[in-house]
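Pasting two entries for a bug report.
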Amino acid sequence: MSAIDPLGHLKGRKGAFRIALIPPEVLDALNDGLIETVNLNEFLALELPRLARSVAGHIGLDAQSERLADTIAMLGAFKPMQRHGHIARALYDLAALHDERDAVAHRLATHASDVARCWAAQWVTLSGLPLAAQLESVRRFAADPHFGVREIAWMAVRDAVNASLDEALVLLQPWVRDADPNIRRFASELTRPRGVWCAQIEVLKAEPWRALPLIEPLRADTSRYVQNSVANWLNDASKSQPEWVDKLCARWLAESDAAETRYIAKRALRTLSRQ
């Protein structure tokens, strides 16, 4: 006889449209790291000190350690997203001293809380591994079922890709042919010339055609998630190389009658269409 999940009734919720309307039971479960956030309001409502200590205990670290306490004490001095980076760093440093570091890392990467898994994804940035190893490490987060973890995944390796762009463009080519649309979308979103909340890739702003081996295979992708990313990629490029994007979309439309290609091209040209 299978055990009944005491929090099962919370996992199908849609999420409150105001922070003040989040039920106390949901907040408690979120802050104890027992369930995932389902919208931005829940994410913003988190009590990070409580969640950090809960997660530390879950993965076998000392929740009352001086290292974690010092980090928690200074969180208020940083912007919201920066706070997550500092917590991830504190947990990473504590894990480095643990006798079973790999087991601790696995528990964090597979944690019930999406925020904990985001911290695990940020460990990839801290690892100092070569680019190929960073991409291999971040893949599980790129395929994560939670949208928030997938966003942190590409941001975690964005700087490394920017620093070794030619290598990245080769390494990511198998990703755009992967069966998982989350993996395909990761390769596109990661290399957007401008992107969101991240450093711009100046080389691809000036020469977007260098990434064509990644973008071309996605021109008729069946996933709307991927389509939107490709369209945004090209829209980014259109702000610095409008003629190239216009010609590329014209070629795609001439060579493909797919509805998916028409959708991508229309969204890709939205900035140019307004000019």
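Entry 2 (this is the one that rendered wrong in the viewer):
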Amino acid sequence: MPLWLVIGGIASGKSIWAEQFIEDKLKHDEVEYIATVDESLISPDDWTWHEKIKEHRRRRPKSWTVWHDADNPIRRILTLPPTHSVLWDGVGPYISHYLSRPERSERLGGNKSHNSQDTGNLVHSPNENWEERLFDISRRQADTVIVSEETGMGLMPIDPDMYDFVHTLGKFNQIASHYATGVIFIVAGIPLWIKGGPQ
């Protein structure tokens, strides 16, 4: 079954569109929902984030199973039954969480420091790891919808850490779009089909 990539900017409406797409258009009542925001890192005083999380929780149907996996959502998808539909929201928080780990000793593009069978440190060698893992996801029997952030439209003054984030997120989007049946760019809540066509 297809892999669908939904991308958009901050507050573009990409998450709610993806939720409606997998439920109303793809006709899945039971969904494995993977949330990658690490709620333990959110300050108790950050009401904006807490309200956003509450809004996401209110929207999810009770029939959906929610997985909180900031560390390795890709492995989570591949260990779920292949007949179960999946919605992963979103790629940006996962990459940010990984890149901010204090134990991270390699920069993007460095030599691999893990066993080739490990699916944990996917950012170290994205071309090799993501090509394989996203291909595997695209071969699942059920639909998989991935929500990701668009990395920007032009030059930005960024430090090395921000460069790592933007470069890594952009590389993920490129590889995912290659294997996706449909790529949908959300602008102000309106879907623009970049690849494939409306269902």
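Dev reply: Rendering is fixed now. As a check, the viewer should reflect this: The longest helix spans residues 160-179.
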